[in-house]
Design a protein that fits this description.
The chain is α/β, with parallel strands linked by helices. It has 18 helices and 18 strands.
Length: 489
């Protein structure tokens, strides 16, 4: 394949992570932003967004030669707006008397082409970017939205475009436990091809909203329903946001299931999950042979088993797929999906899981995903309570909480989770990213699961009491980090 030489100012199609190819422009990077080491790439500003990113050269194509191809394979309102933005840019440039430069050369004052050197592709040792500057290009760091990069500085692991079933990794834990099958469900090296199956989604809360948004971005046909609309009419505005992005609106869970091939559910607790399936105009009334139902809520194994049985009794196909993450992670499409149940449904959901998450795991029979998710959230909830306890103890003993956080961030426990939660606590910002009431519910269910298995959970039990005190202090609808307030009141 011939190398495509690009220079500052060239229009391109850039492929970033799980996003489809997007129109952009090669621009000068900020002076203080180094190129990722070991990668041949260009810095691209995307049209229709305020995003910038380093893009590998193999993920870039010249704009004009590939325009028709890209417009055919990419759909959606935002994509069309981005293409329109490119055309507006070209019209303005033409009015200003300049034509778009190409990598082949640019016209001189007499209209003749003058040869140009192809842009040098920077190797990892090249740090002097001054020679690549386009004098007419506004420095990126002057852009007020500069810090809103897709440049998270971390990339999803690369994966092939093989069917998800062919990329499963088998890990034998021991002779007594079932195989745990894990699949990297990202599409970093190619576009996600959305399934042609009709997708339904029930529940547009903190997690569900981000999931639906990413399903729509990746071109899935989605019908949505949210239970609070029936109780709070103004929540129709919430649904309207998704309708504007191309979603369809179902009137009841039964209607959504009857209209769709695969229906996902993501609600708050076991009671809500049961009511959604078994209640009036519920999921069970819309289930027919072959219909797929995917329960993404974090619930107990007993509830999952019950839902699986009733769905299967009507000829439906069932998969549990709770997700590890938060609202921010959901919005970024970086959830970790734990699935169990019908393996063929898991494979049918491949493009959906690629759109909403960075990795998915298939854990075998129904109930295993619920158990694993409760264990994960038990650990996370207990850890958060311990961090809050440390912050308050530091204050009580005359130590600086900021210094405590700084030391943590340089030690072995450093993580984005710790830094973000501690910063929120110190700023008094408890806007929910994962509801405190939900992590307490997960701790309670994990403790109950331990009782059933006759296994002690003393740390979780202690943490649960702290969260219960925080709930008594009206912190239920705040972020889980508001457990801090249980220690200071």
């Amino acid at each position: 394949m011939a190398t495509v030489h690009l220079r500052i100012g060239d229009l391109v199609w850039g492929k970033l992570g799980r996003y489809p190819p997007w129109p952009g422009k090669v621009v000068s990077p900020p002076k203080d932003l180094k190129k990722p080491r070991g990668k041949k790439c260009h810095f691209v500003k995307f049209f229709g967004t305020e995003d910038h990113a380093w893009i590998k050269v193999e993920q870039l194509k010249p704009y004009h030669p590939h325009k028709e191809e890209m417009i055919k394979i990419n759909k959606g309102k935002r994509f069309q707006q981005a293409v329109d933005a490119v055309e507006d840019f070209l019209k303005k440039k033409e009015k200003q008397g300049g034509k778009e430069q190409s990598s082949e050369g640019k016209g001189d004052s007499k209209g003749k082409k003058t040869p140009t050197k192809p842009l040098k592709i920077l190797e990892e040792d090249d740090e002097d970017l001054s020679a690549l500057k386009d004098p007419s290009e506004k420095p990126v760091q002057d852009d007020p939205h500069f810090h809103h990069f897709l440049l998270s500085q971390t990339e999803k692991p690369a994966s092939s475009m093989e069917p998800i079933s062919k990329r499963l990794k088998i890990v034998e834990e021991d002779t007594r436990s079932p195989s745990i099958q894990a699949a990297d469900s990202t599409a970093i090296n190619g576009s996600i091809t959305p399934t042609d199956k009709r997708i339904g989604f029930l529940g547009l809360g903190l997690m569900g909203s981000g999931i639906v948004s990413n399903l729509l971005k990746m071109g899935h046909v989605v019908t949505v329903w949210n239970r609070t609309v029936e109780k709070v009419p103004q929540d129709n505005q919430h649904c309207d946001l998704f309708i504007q992005e191309g979603a369809r609106l179902g009137r009841t869970p039964a209607e959504v299931v009857s209209m769709c091939d695969i229906t996902f559910s993501c609600v708050s607790d076991p009671k809500a999950a049961r009511d959604l399936v078994l209640g009036p105009s519920g999921v069970l009334q819309g289930i027919r042979p072959g219909k797929c139902y995917v329960e993404m809520s974090t619930v107990d194994p007993e509830t999952i088993t019950e839902l699986s049985q009733v769905i299967s009794s009507r000829g439906g196909r069932f998969l549990e797929a709770p997700v590890a993450g938060s609202q921010q992670v959901s919005n970024e499409g970086m959830l970790v999906i734990l699935a169990a149940g019908d393996r063929t449904v898991y494979e049918d959901c491949s493009s959906c899981f690629q759109a909403m998450g960075k990795t998915s795991f298939f854990l075998g029979e129904v109930g295993n995903a619920a158990r694993m998710m409760l264990i994960l959230n038990m650990v996370q909830g207990s850890f958060m309570a311990t961090i809050a306890e440390g912050l308050t103890l530091a204050q009580a003993t005359g130590q600086s909480q900021h210094t405590f956080l700084d030391i943590l961030s340089h030690g072995q426990m450093a993580s984005t989770f710790v830094d973000q939660k501690c910063q929120n606590i110190l700023q008094g910002n408890f806007k929910p990213d994962y509801y405190l009431k939900h992590i307490q519910k997960d701790l309670r269910l994990a403790i109950s699961m331990g009782d059933t298995a006759n296994h002690p959970t003393p740390m979780a039990a202690a943490a649960n009491e702290v969260y219960k005190r925080a709930k008594a202090l009206d912190q239920s609808d705040n972020d889980m980090s508001a457990v801090y307030r249980a220690y200071i009141h």
